[in-house]
Design goal:
Ubiquitin-like (UB roll); 8 domains; three-stranded mixed β-sheet; 45 strands; disordered N terminus
């Protein structure tokens, strides 16, 4: 209205001006007052040009055209001789826009509304547009049931014809649903119908779900769900007759009433196939889920058309259109269903292209293709190729798009877009631990060596108890048809006595070669052969299952003294030196000693080393079968995976044993974004031929990541029988003298004066108080006294059982969940043994009641620095010897 008044006033002034009494021919046009607006859009908007005649009517057109550009708040037209002069006053320019007070609607969403109306920083301010926007923002809040919301725009004028705009938002409170009623239902209860709704009246949990906050879009969606509920059950005459939404005077409560008419159930009378099916009609009818006499269901009709569309797409008709057309027969409440099939033209793939593979070679992706160039397009093959790419573990995401070839109707291009992710890892450690001392190690694994898809692994580890050098290589496409080949070699030494676990050390080296063959799109079999040389050395603390104890290596060179002689002098020992100390002086003594005989040795059950020796050369064979339908190689959320393997030594090897293992996992979708993952690891091993047990260094262990979290790694399961050692003459557990003679009579003990005979003690009376109180002794009359020198260390077993149930949790505020995963889990498992010794701890054959278990939460992040995994758990069922570790983590750097 303001612009119209200005226009009329200026027009009248020009009409009355004597300068416009007659028209004139324009020789030039001069613009005045422009600052930020360039002359080009002004000249473009002018309805007159140089050389044309201008009169009062043209002046009105000039003013109107320039006002219509929206750039100017005032326009004046004047004449100087034959020069047309246009004086312009620009509208102010927007320097800054600020939004305050909005929480329910994100600033980005409100900014989008401003941008869509060309109201942004640097643009010309148009007051009418600003007013319209404030009203539109208020309408958006009303749509979210914030009826008390208000939006006010304030303009701050600045020098140089610029302004700041401040948009103040008062969102008010969301109106909550007080009552939600359905009227007219007779077949189904109101409670059953309201279960289909996202909106609810206020409940105890509404604070968390916000389901009681009214929103027009949600109500529309709920009404559509209600219609689908009835249509899926055959009520084709169902109708929502009206919907009333009332608001309380304080605009804080909403009352909703939905009036419906249910109608009656319709049955299928006939099913016909129409159009040009191309494929046999019998094949199509097998995919129709509705049969004559069954209750009509819109969902089943939709599913049927989708199945038929998929079948047509797999046959090369990717543009096929399939539509279900139900014809109601109100008189008998039946439906004649017609499935109309329009196959379109058969489509062929012209070209397959790849995008985003910056590190991986094209041929690595192309060999995974099941859809080929030049062949008819198949939706199943195109999608199957995408799944195979996702399982490679090289890509975070794979997307596929089909594009029509311009100028043709029967050709498409298929484009796969991949997003690379770190597919190789480097794990290094420099640290110090109580048992292992200084740890230095590096392990490099390339799962996609130089983008070729080949795997390469190099490892070097060196610390106080272990030295390891390893190398591995595999080519998943050794032959073009998918036969894989791999080999690895290693050298390893370990001294377990340094970490006080099980007292033995190993020195081993070996090599393996493996081959794998695909037997289907999701299954493979493999076999391999290897050689291993191992040497075992035991310490004095080795459990008796490894080396029997106590024993003498050479009976002829050892002596013993009697128990009574030892007790006579041991009570007089000084705390240091091991010499009787009476009346403040050392006392000379000499104990009678005798040679040990075979009859004086305790019976010793032979251990593994005693029976089979301590060095072995073996040839190994391994077989495996695997099947995977996982949706991706890393952090899968759908599908299942199974692996079954058998490893055995060749008959005639110095070790004869076998090990069978099974690993399986399955994913099940739950409510919303929750997913259930079930996982198990099972293992069994034993000896054969002359070997009656699984070698102890091939035993299974449980506890820690990949097993039972919440327990220290490898601490579950059987523990060995503590080693024993014959008791020597000593006051504090170490060998000492059996006599002393003060040769130079100076009262000082000289080493040359001490009898250095290494003597054991022959038992005479097991009930002697001194022995019973000082030692856990084995004392049989006539035998040498022995005592425990080891402890019940972990030795493992030949039976492994672990189970895991995880719920994969949706991560709030995380847009990309492909590289992050949070879980709540329950782990259970243990290691058992078929041949438990009488002195072993925590050893038993398989028993479900003996499974250790824990519950907790975990988080995994495939970061730019590599995979990181954390877990916190507490034990649910804990054995006497189980060692717990509530917080656990692992870290590896990726590149």
């Amino acid at each position: 209205m303001k612009r119209l008044c200005v226009f009329v006033a200026l027009s009248l002034s020009f009409l009355s001006a004597s300068s416009w009494a007659v028209q004139f021919r324009v020789s030039d046009i001069r613009l005045e007052g422009l600052q930020r607006v360039s002359a080009s859009p002004v000249f473009a908007a002018l309805p007159v040009r140089v050389g044309e005649d201008v009169d009062s009517e043209d002046v009105r057109d000039i003013i109107g055209a320039l006002f219509d550009t929206g750039f100017f708040s005032n326009v004046q037209v004047a004449r100087e001789d034959d020069v047309l002069i246009i004086v312009l006053q620009e509208r102010p320019s927007i320097k800054k826009i600020e939004l305050e007070g909005n929480k329910a609607i994100k600033t980005e969403q409100l900014t989008d509304v401003l941008d869509d109306n060309d109201l942004r920083e640097g643009e010309i301010l148009q007051s009418d547009v600003l007013q319209n926007i404030t009203r539109e923002l208020e309408r958006q809040y009303v749509a979210r049931a914030r009826y008390g919301a208000s939006v006010e725009a304030k303009i701050e004028e600045l020098p140089n014809n610029m302004v700041n705009i401040q948009i103040l938002v008062d969102e008010g409170d969301s109106a909550k649903i007080k009552h939600l009623n359905i009227v007219g239902n007779e077949i189904f209860s109101e409670k059953e119908l309201l279960q289909q709704f996202e909106l609810t009246s206020t409940r105890w949990n509404s604070f968390f779900t916000s389901s009681d906050k009214y929103a027009r879009e949600k109500l529309t969606g709920d009404i559509e769900k209600l219609e689908s509920f009835y249509l899926d059950r055959g009520y084709l005459d169902f109708e929502v007759q009206s919907t009333q939404v009332s608001i309380s005077p304080n605009k804080e409560q909403v009352f909703i009433t939905i009036n419906i008419s249910e109608g009656e159930v319709y049955k299928i009378k006939s099913v016909d196939i129409a159009g040009d099916p191309v494929v046999p009609e019998s094949q199509i009818k097998r995919l129709v889920l509705l049969r004559e006499g069954s209750t009509f269901s819109q969902q089943l009709m939709t599913d049927s058309t989708e199945y038929i569309t998929t079948m047509m797409g797999n046959a090369g008709y990717t543009n096929a259109k399939v539509e279900g057309i139900p014809k109601k027969n109100p008189e008998d409440k039946t439906v004649d269903l017609t499935i109309f099939v329009d196959p379109g033209m058969r489509v062929y793939v012209r070209r397959i292209e790849f995008r985003g593979n910056t590190k991986t070679n094209d041929d690595v992706l192309r060999r995974e293709m099941r859809q080929f160039e030049g062949a008819s397009a198949s939706n199943a093959q195109i999608e199957g190729s995408k799944v195979r790419l996702e399982r490679l573990e090289y890509f975070k995401e794979v997307a596929v798009e089909t594009k029509d070839v311009p100028g043709t109707e029967d050709l498409i291009d298929v484009e796969y877009t991949v997003e690379e992710q770190p597919s190789s890892t480097i794990q290094g450690s420099v640290g110090y631990a109580q048992y292992t001392g200084l740890n230095l190690g590096v392990n490099v694994q390339f799962n996609n060596w130089l983008g070729s898809g080949k795997r390469l692994q190099l490892g070097v580890t060196d610390n106080k108890y272990q030295t390891l050098y390893s190398f591995g290589y595999s080519d998943p496409y050794f032959t073009p048809d998918g036969v894989s080949r791999g080999f690895d070699a290693y050298y390893r030494t370990r001294d377990y006595s340094k970490i006080n676990v099980t007292s033995y050390s190993t020195d081993a080296y070996g090599a393996n070669m493996t081959f794998g063959y695909p037997i289907s799109e999701v299954s493979r079999i493999g076999f391999g052969m290897g050689y291993i040389h191992q040497e075992i050395r035991t310490g004095i603390y080795a459990p008796q299952e490894i080396a029997g104890s106590p024993k003498l290596t050479n009976n002829s060179g050892f002596n013993y003294i009697s128990q009574s002689d030892w007790e006579d002098v041991s009570s007089q020992y000084q705390s240091t030196g091991g010499i009787p100390f009476v009346g403040g002086q050392y006392q000379e003594f000499q104990l009678e000693n005798y040679l040990v005989t075979e009859e004086q040795l305790l019976e010793s059950v032979p251990g593994f080393i005693d029976k089979y020796g301590d060095a072995y050369d073996s040839v190994t064979l391994n077989f495996n079968w695997s099947r995977s339908t996982l949706n991706r190689g890393i952090m899968a959320t759908r599908g299942n995976q199974q692996t079954l393997s058998l490893e055995t030594t060749v008959p005639g090897s110095e070790m004869e044993y076998y090990k069978a293992s099974y690993h399986g996992q399955m994913f099940f979708p739950l409510i919303g974004d929750f997913t259930l993952r079930l996982r198990t690891r099972l293992g069994y091993g034993n000896g054969y031929g002359d070997m009656t047990e699984l070698p102890f260094f091939e035993n299974y262990y449980a506890g820690g990541f990949g097993s039972v979290r919440g327990f220290r790694r490898s601490t579950l399961g059987p523990r060995g029988t503590p080693a024993t050692q014959y008791q020597t003459v000593s006051s504090n557990g170490v060998s000492t003298a059996t006599g002393w003679a003060d040769v130079n009579r100076d009262g000082v003990v000289q080493s040359s004066e001490v009898s250095g005979v290494n003597a054991y003690i022959a038992c005479e009376d097991p009930g002697t108080a001194f022995i019973a109180s000082q030692y856990t002794a084995i004392c049989e009359p006539g035998k040498l006294i022995a005592s425990n020198v080891g402890y019940a260390s972990v030795i493992g077993g030949n039976i492994l059982t672990t189970f895991t149930a995880e719920v994969i949790l949706p991560l709030p505020f995380v847009e990309d969940s492909r590289s992050m995963q949070a879980v709540a889990f329950v782990d259970a498992g243990n290691v058992f043994s078929d041949y438990c010794g009488s002195g072993q701890r925590n050893c038993a054959s398989f028993d479900v009641g003996e499974l250790s278990s824990s519950a907790g939460v975990g988080f995994t992040w495939i970061s730019a620095f590599g995979p990181m995994t954390f877990s916190y758990s507490v034990p649910l069922n804990k054995g006497l010897y189980d060692e717990t570790e509530k917080f656990q983590f692992s870290f590896g750097a990726g590149f």
